[in-house]
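Tip: read the tokens left to right.
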């Protein structure tokens, strides 16, 4: 190729045409020759850098776009350099490049939008909002900036403004699926379930649609939503707009499916961080060092996690174990945060840090084991664990299932019932089994005074079935069984936890469909834990949900002295109540089919003497069973951590399940 300007330009136009047709490899070949022949041909050098960016060859993209900046420092050149730096995880350099782009072109909307993304990643909501507004001012129909602004407004509790902004995003780009998804999520949160369902379906997000349908007790199309959700997950790589925990209720979901969906979701959602190597860790501590354990969560306040864990944290042997909490909890002040302040355990606040900064903060503490208490549950920040800030990461308590992606956790804490060794293939993590039950309990938890039935709107002489699980866990099949029980135990009522008016009205209508007077369904308001435990004593028999069973709810029920009937399934989430009942000495209340579940509950409801015997057995086992022995549980948990670290220290490539006796 000669250096004739006309020929060079002709070749450049040829490469540009290939670029515009997305034939990047062919364009790269021509552009390579061009820049070799004319190293200061700005357009060719710049376009070659862009082509490498699109080919995910980011180091080469950086080289050529930086050369282009030297030749001619245009705003577009700096903008593209910023994009490359973001892919290379060079956030500071990316920020500088975008700022330079705006200095050269104050109306560069995409640069402002990307600066907003950087600030959002650092949790600097005020700055993020400023940059998104700047992008919109520069480009009034920039749908992506509206969507991002809506996200910031939602996360800073400016819900009505967020909805208006998201509707603008949809107006300017009807194909921007994330705008619909964020808005639908807000409708769902506000109890506008049908609007949420319709909007989720519009973008083909059937996973979230079935969740909204369950939360609102809209069951007419639930079977079809479930089938479509599972089909879409099996045949798609788009996993951005749902949470794996919400699929646990889907009928027919197998543990292997759930593990594999978790892996796909993690690899999609955490793609950027998983492409980067883990953080460099400090030199390992001597083998005889105090074992250093960290707990990571957003729930270190009045939350179900702390209801279970408070006693453990108070009883940890801090002479033999270094314990530290890493919190990205909201700022709260309650009895549980006060208990934490009284402990000799430091709480590190990560809430205002970026994921990278949070991971580096944890890594500096030179832990042996980091215990993630969130998994795929709400408000999780798995980007932190994906950066591997400790040599061993353990998943425990918050999420009843496998995360699927091995980089997120090495072990999962279970027990012989929820995670039997025979189920090892259900998990990407290695099983680490507690001897009795994986779930801790706080044996100092107070049970409030027992109110009268009249005070709780319960009939004095009725048999009271109860289920205080979230309505999302109900299924048409289980609810039909409950109605069948009410039909065959004439003087009985079903006591449930209330929700917003829509799901409550839908459940009452469902009772009518099943031939039951809706007045026999009695809804209870949410109360503080102590008062709730007090009123639970009024129930005669608790009924578990399926396929997702009671977790903390089951512990509360048993702690209050009420027997619980459960059905065992294949999922971790279907086995928790069975584990609790086994650990408290009532395995006879575990069934394996719907019919057995129904027959057992029916026979108990018609046998007051048997109910009384069960309550007496539960009371006798209250202080002797391992389920409610916090001291014993804590010592077992510490033994399990030691066994996990010992196996890690041996350096074997293959990890074996750890089973404590």
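Filled-in amino acids:
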């Amino acid at each position: 190729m000669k250096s004739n300007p006309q020929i060079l330009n002709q070749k450049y136009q040829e490469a540009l045409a290939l670029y515009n047709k997305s034939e990047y490899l062919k364009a790269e070949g021509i552009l390579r020759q061009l820049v070799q022949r004319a190293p200061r041909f700005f357009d060719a050098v710049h376009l070659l850098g862009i082509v490498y960016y699109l080919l995910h060859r980011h180091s080469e993209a950086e080289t050529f776009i930086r050369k282009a900046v030297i030749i001619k420092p245009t705003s577009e050149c700096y903008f593209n350099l910023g994009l490359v730096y973001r892919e290379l995880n060079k956030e500071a350099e990316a920020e500088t490049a975008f700022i330079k782009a705006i200095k050269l072109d104050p109306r560069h909307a995409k640069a402002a939008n990307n600066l907003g993304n950087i600030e959002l990643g650092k949790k600097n909501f005020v700055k993020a909002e400023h940059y998104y507004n700047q992008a919109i001012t520069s480009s009034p129909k920039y749908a992506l900036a509206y969507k991002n602004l809506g996200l910031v407004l939602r996360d800073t509790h400016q819900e009505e403004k967020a909805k208006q902004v998201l509707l603008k995003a949809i107006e300017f780009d009807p194909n921007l699926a994330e705008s619909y998804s964020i808005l639908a999520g807000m409708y769902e949160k506000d109890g506008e379930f049908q609007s949420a369902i319709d909007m989720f379906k519009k973008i083909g997000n059937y996973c979230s649609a079935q969740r909204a349908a369950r939360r609102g007790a809209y069951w007419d199309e639930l079977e079809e939503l479930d089938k479509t959700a599972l089909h879409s997950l099996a045949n798609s790589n788009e996993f951005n707009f749902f949470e794996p925990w919400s699929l646990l209720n889907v009928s027919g979901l197998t543990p292997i499916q759930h593990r594999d969906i978790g892996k796909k979701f993690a690899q999609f959602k955490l793609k950027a961080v998983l492409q980067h190597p883990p953080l460099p860790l400090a030199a390992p501590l001597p083998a005889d060092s105090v074992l250093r354990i960290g707990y990571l969560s957003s729930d270190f306040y009045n939350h179900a996690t702390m209801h279970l864990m408070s006693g453990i944290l108070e009883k940890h042997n801090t002479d033999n174990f270094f314990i530290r909490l890493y919190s990205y909890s909201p700022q709260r002040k309650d009895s549980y945060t006060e208990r934490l302040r009284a402990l000799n355990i430091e709480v590190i606040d990560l809430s205002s840090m970026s994921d990278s900064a949070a991971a580096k903060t944890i890594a500096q503490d030179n832990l042996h084991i980091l215990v993630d208490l969130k998994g795929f549950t709400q408000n999780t920040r798995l980007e932190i664990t994906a950066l591997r800030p400790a040599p061993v990461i353990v998943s425990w308590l918050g999420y009843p299932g496998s995360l699927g992606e091995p980089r997120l956790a090495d072990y999962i804490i279970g027990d012989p019932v929820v995670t039997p060794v025979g189920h090892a293939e259900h998990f990407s993590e290695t099983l680490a089994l507690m001897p009795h039950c994986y779930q801790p309990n706080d044996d100092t938890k107070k049970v409030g005074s027992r109110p009268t039935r009249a005070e709780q709107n319960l009939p004095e002489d009725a048999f009271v079935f109860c289920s205080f699980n979230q309505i999302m866990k109900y299924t048409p099949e289980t609810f039909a069984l409950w109605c069948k029980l009410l039909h065959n135990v004439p003087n009985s009522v079903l006591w449930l936890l209330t929700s917003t008016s829509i799901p409550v009205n839908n459940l009452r209508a469902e009772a009518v469909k099943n031939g039951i007077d809706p007045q026999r369904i009695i809804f209870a308001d949410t109360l503080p834990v102590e008062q709730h435990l007090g009123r639970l004593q009024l129930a005669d028999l608790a009924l578990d949900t399926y396929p997702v069973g009671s977790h903390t709810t089951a512990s509360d029920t048993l702690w209050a002295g009420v027997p619980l009937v459960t059905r065992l399934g294949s999922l971790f989430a279907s086995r928790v109540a069975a584990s609790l009942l086994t650990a408290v000495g009532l395995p006879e209340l575990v069934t394996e089919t719907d019919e057995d579940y129904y027959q057992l509950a029916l026979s108990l409801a018609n046998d007051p003497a048997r109910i009384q015997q069960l309550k007496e057995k539960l009371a006798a086992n209250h202080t002797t069973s391992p389920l409610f022995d916090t001291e014993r549980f804590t010592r077992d948990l510490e033994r399990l951590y030691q066994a996990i670290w010992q196996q890690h220290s041996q350096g074997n490539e293959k990890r074996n399940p750890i089973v404590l006796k």
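The longest helix spans residues 630-649. The mean pLDDT is 95.
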